[in-house]
Amino acid sequence: MFDERLAHVRERITQACQRCGRDPSSITLVAVTKGVTVPAIREAAAHGLMDFGENRVQEARRKYQELVHSPQSTVHGVRWHLVGHLQRNKAKDAVVLFDAIHSVDTAALAQALEQHAAAAGKSLDIFMQVNVSGEATKFGCRPDEAAALAQVVRGLPHVRLAGLMTIAPFTEEAERSRQYFRQLRELRDRFHSAFHISHSALKLSMGMSQDFEVAIEEGADNIRVGTAIFGTGDGGHETKDG
C-alpha cells in the first residue's frame, strides 16, 4: 500500500506540473511524519524520499535519536524540516535537529534562531510563515508585516531566508485554496523586486495532501504531504499545521 500511495502522489505532482508547464523535478516533496512510526519513515527513505517534516520538536527529537544516532541507522543524507509552529524557548533544540524551519513569523524568533545557529556553528534555512488567509486560528505574520520581517531575517548571518510559507484554510475543495496560494506567490514576486532576490533563491512552501496540485499550479516549490503518503492506519496524521 505504501508503494501505491507514494506512486500516486508522484503521479499527481507530474500531472500538476504538466498542466502548468513546470518540471516535476523542481518540486520538493516534504513527507510530513507527524504521528508516523520510525519503521514507516525508514521505508519512505528506502523509497527515495529525502525530505521529512515534523510538527513538534519533542516528537522529532525522539525519532531522530532512533533514526540517526543509533548504530543500526539506515537513514542518511536526508533533510529535516520543521513545518509546525515553533515556540521561542524551543529554538535551541530546533537548530540542532532541523535543516530548515518553515514557520518563522516574528523577528524575535528569527533572532533566537540566529543566536543558537551561531553558537552551533551552523547555517539554517528558514521560511517566513505568512497568514494570508487572516484566520485567527493560524500562526504567521500578516502580509503587510512580511517585508519588515524579511529585512530582519536578511540581516542575520547564520540564517538564510529560503522562502515563504502559508497554510490555506482547510477545505475538501482544493480549488478554494487557489486564492491563498496566489497571494503568497504575488508577495514573493514583490520581494524579488524589492530585495533584488532571484526567483531560484526564494521558494514557496505551500500545499498539503488535499490541495498540493493547486499549490503547484500557483508556484509551490515545497509541498508538505503526510496523509496521502502514509495514510492514517499507521499513524500518518496530517494536520492544518503541516
Describe the structure.
This protein has 242 residues and is an alpha/beta fold. Helix content is 40%, strand content 16%. It has an 8-stranded parallel β-sheet with strand order 7-6-5-4-3-2-1-8. Strand 6 (159-165), helix 7 (178-195) and strand 7 (203-205) form a beta-alpha-beta unit. Helix 4 (91-97) packs across helix 5 (107-120).
Question: TL;DR of this structure?
Answer:
The protein has 242 residues and is α/β, with parallel strands linked by helices. Helices cover 40% and strands 16% of the residues.
Roughly what is the average pLDDT, rounded to an integer?
92
| Morphology call | globular
Number of helices: 9
Beta-strand content estimate: 15-25%
- Portion of residues in helices? 40-55%
Question: How many DSSP-defined strands?
Answer: 8
Please tell me how large the radius of gyration is.
Answer: 17 Å
Please describe the topology of this protein.
Elements: H1 2-20, E1 28-32, H2 38-46, E2 51-54, H3 57-67, E3 79-82, H4 91-97, E4 100-104, H5 107-120, E5 124-129, H6 146-154, E6 159-165, H7 178-195, E7 203-205, H8 212-217, E8 222-225, H9 227-230
Parallel strand pairs: 1-2, 1-8, 2-3, 3-4, 4-5, 5-6, 6-7
